[in-house]
Request: fold
Amino acid sequence: MIKTADKICPESVEMRKAFCESLIELAGEDENVIVMDGDLMGAMGTKPFADEYPDQTLDCGIQEANAVGVAAGMSAVGKIPFVHSFGPFISRRACDQVFMSGAYARLNVKLVGSDPGITAQINGGTHMPFEDMGIMRGIPQMTIVEPTDITMLRSVMRQMKENYGMFYMRLVRKTCMKIYEEGSEFEIGKAVVLRDGRDASVIASGYCVAQALKAAEELEREGVYIRVIDMFTWKPVDEETIVKAAKETGAIVTAENHNVINGLGSAVAETVVKHSPVPMEMIGVQDQFGEVGNLDYLAGRFGLKAENIIEAVKKAIKRKIAVQRKRVKT
Reply:
C-alpha cells in the first residue's frame, strides 16, 4: 500500500545515510551482498557498512571501469555487487564495461550513480550527469530507476537485490523531499499516481516530483486540475499508466532532472506516439552542460521549477483545445 506524506518537506536524514542502512540490512540477510566504491565511501556515507562488513566491502579506487569489471566477475560466481560512483563516472566512464562485462554477459550487477543532474550543485558541470539515464536506457536488459525519497529507496533497493539482472539507480546523496509515508511499498516498473486530474497529466521523476505537486496546487487555484504521476522507473516504463493518462487527460507534460534527449520525456513520447498521440511538452535540461551553483539557482537556470511546469501545462492544454476544435470542424 502506498500512502503520501501529510506534508511535503525535506527528509529528516540524508538519502546516503538511508542507502547505507539499507545495504547493511541486506548484507545482514545475505552474505553475497557486496558493496563496491570508486574511492567515494566517505562522500557516499558507506563507511559504516565497511566497518560492519569488511569482508563484503571493496574500495576499487578511482577506476570505475575496472570496478564494474570486478563486479561482473563477482556476479559470475554468485555475489550480488552494488557498485557506486558519481553518476557521470559510473555511466560515461564505465559504459563499455557496463555493456560488455555486465549486460551482454547477462550478469547481476547493481549500479548506483549519485548526485543526479542539478543535485551535484557546486561540483559543477563535469560532475553533473544530465545524460546518465539516457546512456543506461540504451543498454539492452538494463532496468533503470530513480527513487523519489527515502521510503521508496528502501523498497527499490530490496527489489534490486532480490531480482536478478543489471540495474542502474541514480540517487541523491544529501537531502531530498519526503513524498511518501514510511511503510509504503512500490513495484519497479509501476508508476505511482500521486494526484488525479482531468485537464492534463504531469509525469515526473526524482527532484521534479515535488515541483510537479507544487505546480498542481497552484494550478488548482486557477481551476486547472492536473494528474501527477511519479514515473520512478524509466525502463521498463509503465506504458499502461502513460496511455491511460493520455486518453483521459488529453495532454502530457514530462518533468525530469535530466537532458530531455533520450530521457524520461523521450521514453514517455515513444509510448504516446505508438498508442495515443496527444500534445506533449517536456520540462528538463535542453541539451546543455551543467555548471556550478546551488540547487535553487540551478533549478531556475535549467527550467526545472514548478513555475516552468505550470507554463508547460498551460501550453499543452492550449494545444489540446486547438486539436479538439480542429476535430469538431472536420
Q: What stands out?
A: The mean pLDDT is 96. DSSP finds 13 helices and 14 strands in the chain. The radius of gyration is 20 Å.
